[in-house]
Amino acid sequence: MLGLMQNQPLLISSLIEFAERHHGDAEIVSRRVEGDIHRYTYRDAARRARQVANALDTLGLAFSDRVATLAWNGYRHFELYYGVSGSGRVLHTINPRLHPEQIAWIANHAEDQVLCFDLSFLPIVQSIHAHCSTIRHFIALCDADRLPQDSGIPNLQSYEAWMGGHSDRYSWPSFDENSASSMCYTSGTTGHPKAALYSHRSTLLHAYASALPDVMGLSARDSVLPVVPMFHVNAWGIPYATALTGAKLVLPGPGLDGKSVYELLEAEKVTYAAGVPTVWQMLLSHMKPQGLRFSSLQRTVIGGSACPPAMITAFREDYGVEVLHAWGMTEMSPLGTVCTLKNKHQALSDEERMSIRLKQGRAIFGVDMKIVDDAGQELPWDGRTFGNLLVRGPWVVREYFKGEGGDPLQDGWFPTGDVATIDADGFMQITDRSKDVIKSGGEWISSIDVENLAVAHPAVAMAACVGMPHPKWDERPIVVVVKKPGAELSREDLLAFYEGKLAKWQIPDDVVFVEAIPLGATGKMLKTRLRETLKGYKLPGT
Amino acid sequence: MLGLMQNQPLLISSLIEFAERHHGDAEIVSRRVEGDIHRYTYRDAARRARQVANALDTLGLAFSDRVATLAWNGYRHFELYYGVSGSGRVLHTINPRLHPEQIAWIANHAEDQVLCFDLSFLPIVQSIHAHCSTIRHFIALCDADRLPQDSGIPNLQSYEAWMGGHSDRYSWPSFDENSASSMCYTSGTTGHPKAALYSHRSTLLHAYASALPDVMGLSARDSVLPVVPMFHVNAWGIPYATALTGAKLVLPGPGLDGKSVYELLEAEKVTYAAGVPTVWQMLLSHMKPQGLRFSSLQRTVIGGSACPPAMITAFREDYGVEVLHAWGMTEMSPLGTVCTLKNKHQALSDEERMSIRLKQGRAIFGVDMKIVDDAGQELPWDGRTFGNLLVRGPWVVREYFKGEGGDPLQDGWFPTGDVATIDADGFMQITDRSKDVIKSGGEWISSIDVENLAVAHPAVAMAACVGMPHPKWDERPIVVVVKKPGAELSREDLLAFYEGKLAKWQIPDDVVFVEAIPLGATGKMLKTRLRETLKGYKLPGT
């Protein structure tokens, strides 16, 4: 027997309709590519999103056709979030930091029909448009009088000329809530990028969950600054969660430097900000020498990579801002865990609480997680045992766009590619990437632990720990080290340095000194490239 | 094209599984009918809910079969919430305050197979069991050694004997999230009661929404006391929202008097409590003479009926507790609006904020609302115009159980039976019930406004305003008054008292003095009965 509640699909259009109706005069403030500040309201945004929907209808775009963006966080991008998905098309946000060749590959793979881009990215579009066989319309996110002349891009139109002439009357269509709403390609360290294809249902469930007190804690009294980009996993869903709650939305455009972010935080009385550690490091570096303070900021969620303890301490103790560690993935819409404390932790000492805050946090309702060994057996939640982290839930992918990469699931669970511990209270801590962890005689050794200890040595500039084949133990760790300029350090010195800090079997078997460790575009060490350079290396005694 | 996120139905069983896995040691504390305090954890509750599921399987109950409860807020009731719905049956919570004949009617109409009841309600069950033709199993929520002897109830079992012997291993079944999960009959002032039939989907969406910062704002650091009963619209969904967030749950059992509630608030460090004004009045009356304070309570949501301004002020100013006015209905799962302020209100004076706090609040995302005139035309949101309040959303009924009462919807919207204003910021205020509002020459007059002014007169004990037929104006208001013992008051005195306080056309045409006004079981004035006693009355000048 079915219940007798109203059948109302969970659709992205209902978010912007709700924001217009119930929070019509709440503000959306954007720093534009032009450098100035633009401000308007949810009512204005809703009106213009409907114009976008009419403009897409006029282009003849079918249901589920893809509309791509190459854009910063700004109000026009926000309008596309709603106009494209709300009218039944799929918003494809492309990361402009990728190599242009990769961008063209992605646009072709997604079969994008339209590409909307900020003028900052004109050179990219100029270099790739001839290779994007499916894109029929190029739209520059600018006023008509800013449209570049002789760009070489066929039929280039300005966004304002394109959508501005259309009616702002539009009835959002109703359809299956499982329909695709938006997509995002993972950068993928190996092989071609693969796309997560979100649905209206997954987006709305994620939006509800993301605004919960133990997640981002958003209310109509907040002013929210997503420094995390709208071209990367929908800015952690913030453009949806703010519409759901009626919070003020502050969009930083291309101004991600410390000074620009600080000015926006202060001018717009931002209470909540979300970003990656690099951005917050730039902000703190800007503030400290000048003795600047926050007058409104209350809390920040930090994700993307592990947050250095010193940063958590600085935010909390020097600036009175609560820092929440979070973890997620493109494949998870992205939120999986947030590190908010429980009732029982309130009586702990500051130091004890800090040790919890360094973890990536506990699962949000809607995300289930577990750790397993290589045979898929579930491992205990004791805070020490680490295993492959698997997740499942209604905003976790079940497969990639076009089936690329085959069926990624293991018995219905998505393998995150991370290795983690989970403690008895359900707090998860990433210890390594699955491909980097060293498997020695059935025990796992975290490459990150080995590296963190190495760089704590005063003579070490950079260190990478990798596993090397071993006849008895399968793998044994070695540490590859770049010394600081002029520093003296022997193999024996460094191995002795590990004693008492790691269990004996976790200490590397060898130290290899090199001039440099290969790095990727985002500054991450490329261990696959590093391993290639170690071809022919043999562990001592083998 | 569909999105590629995991297909995971929204099921009530996932709440208790999540709570067990991620908040296993968070507490559930109950005051028992026996008078003592019982405490255990979500882990224990989850285990026992699985035993209940196995016990129901053994009884041979089919999917969607109804299991009724007559019970206070307590841990066994909590286990039934999950064991019954989680295993695919429908939990039918019956209001024990109804007349026993009505309870029997409801049990028969719902075709309940099992009735679980607290021993407080043994006399009710003794008086009705012979008339409940579908109930095959009577279960007293007590230990085996407390089971009453010679109760006259056939095959009466104790809950502990019934479920205690079953395995605590059970795989919650997966099924359509639109399946019925639970039901609640409205008390219905006219005709037979009608039942709202909730689904797993509606319950989970409501649970997400209810925990939002602008709704109940629940986190794993909260200790939550629902004084609002689990036999009435699922205690506003709190037993689900606490599992979703991992909050501590404190269940008051039958102890709703001021002393019992106060002791529980303090002993269990309750941070959040929800109830109706009557209960809070008892609490404040207990505290004031003794100069008692709250040591942990931070906020309370008040609904069920309008909260007197003096109570809001007392909680806020005398006790430092934030009071949130809320509004909902059995047909709405029940939450519709909560009165949390917006960003723009933070700069207002205390007085201005108070005028907002008296309103029932603004819509939660998931509930859409509008006011319309009798022709169904939408009315403006100006805070003055009032009209019939209509709502829609995924946790609002589309029809009643067994189609009773026909199709209640108007163009897809559910008519609440309330008359309300909505202001430009979306804050709704109930001004009357649709059946009580007086329609005079196309203008509507709030009976509540007329009554509130009458009882402000020092000589008036009770007042009811009703509309009387008028040849020119359709209806005109009169006020029916019970004088305070020994007080002197003339018709002219009271009519003069209205001058300057209401517009001339809103002032009643007449005053009728009576000895008593008929009241219902819950203390509400029965205007239909009152109108019968006024049969033959004629307005002056008609």
What is the strand arrangement across the widest sheet of chain A?
Answer: 2-1-11-10-12-13-14-15-16
Strand tally of chain A, please?
Answer: 25
Assign an overall shape of chain A: globular
Radius of gyration of chain A: 24 Å
Poorly predicted tracts of residues of chain A: none
What pair of chains forms the biggest interface?
Answer: A-B, 76 and 76 residues
Tell me what portion of residues of chain A adopts beta-strand conformation.
15-25%
Main structural class of chain A:
alpha/beta
Helix content of chain A: 25-40%
Instruction: Please state the average pLDDT score of chain A.
Output: 94
Tally of DSSP helical segments of chain A: 16
Compute the separation of the termini of chain A in Å.
68 Å
Largest sheet of chain A: 9 strands, mixed
The protein's oligomeric status is homodimer
What does the model show?
2 copies of one chain form a homodimer. The first copy, chain A, has a 9-stranded mixed β-sheet, with helices on both faces. Chain A has a 7-stranded mixed β-sheet with strand order 7-6-5-3-4-8-9, sandwiched between helices. In chain A, strands 17-18-19-20 form a 4-stranded antiparallel β-sheet. Chain A is globular, with a radius of gyration of 24 Å. The mean pLDDT of chain A is 94. With 542 residues, chain A is of the alpha/beta class. Chains A and B meet through helix 1, strand 9, helix 7 and strand 16 of A and helix 1, strand 9, helix 7 and strand 16 of B.
What are its keywords?
homodimer; alpha/beta; 9-stranded mixed β-sheet; 16 helices; about 25% strand; 7-stranded mixed β-sheet; about 550 residues
